[in-house]
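Structure first, sequence second, as always.
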């Protein structure tokens, strides 16, 4: 059974553990705690048979939604979990009346770029040397709701 729920303190540790497994520069536990406390942050977890296998979050900045983070448990990638989570953020952004969703992604991160493209995001620019460990450009992507 699949459930997508807002992230709560109860699942913070599992979310943090998945973060550590997914990124070369993972967020700290404290960053997740701060995101939970921020009224403009909206984080969701995806549970399969009550086990956390993915999460995604966005921050509403004025009328823009920024995808801050998304990760799926390696054992469950390529099964549409990421797509369900980004769709949840798109629904929430529309519900909040935002103009669209934007994000940065490592230029080498083909799975993530393909995921975003499959949901209508387009490449609008580059942030030179945006990422470290390893140093890499960030691609800026946008999904403007007026275009869809
Ligand atoms: C990026 C990530 C979240 C994708 O999650 P996922 O659950 O595997 O993605 P989905 O199965 O929903 O795939 C959705 C679409 O993305 C694309 N995609 C996913 N994995 C892909 C891969 N390895 N290669 C190419 N395209 C891929 C496909 O277009 C796919 O659509 P399709 O299945 O209809 O062809 C996952 O790979 C991950 O956790 N990566 C590590 C963390 C990360 O890089 N986060 C992104 C930060 S910007």
């Amino acid at each position: 059974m699949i459930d997508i729920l807002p992230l709560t303190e109860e699942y913070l540790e599992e979310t943090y553990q998945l973060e550590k497994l997914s990124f070369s520069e993972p967020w700290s536990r404290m960053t997740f705690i701060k995101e939970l406390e921020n009224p403009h942050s909206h984080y969701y977890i995806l549970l399969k048979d009550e086990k956390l296998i993915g999460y995604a979050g966005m921050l509403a900045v004025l009328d823009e939604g920024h995808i801050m983070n998304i990760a799926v448990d390696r054992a469950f990638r390529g099964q549409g979990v990421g797509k369900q989570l980004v769709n949840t953020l798109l629904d929430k952004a529309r519900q909040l009346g935002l103009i669209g969703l934007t994000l940065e992604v490592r230029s080498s991160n083909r799975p993530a770029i393909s995921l975003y493209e499959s949901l209508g995001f387009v490449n609008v620019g580059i942030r030179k040397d945006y990422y470290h460990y390893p140093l890499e450009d960030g691609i800026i992507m946008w999904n403007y709701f007026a275009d869809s």
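Margin note: Strands lie at 2-6, 41-48, 51-61, 64-72, 100-106, 122-131, 136-144.
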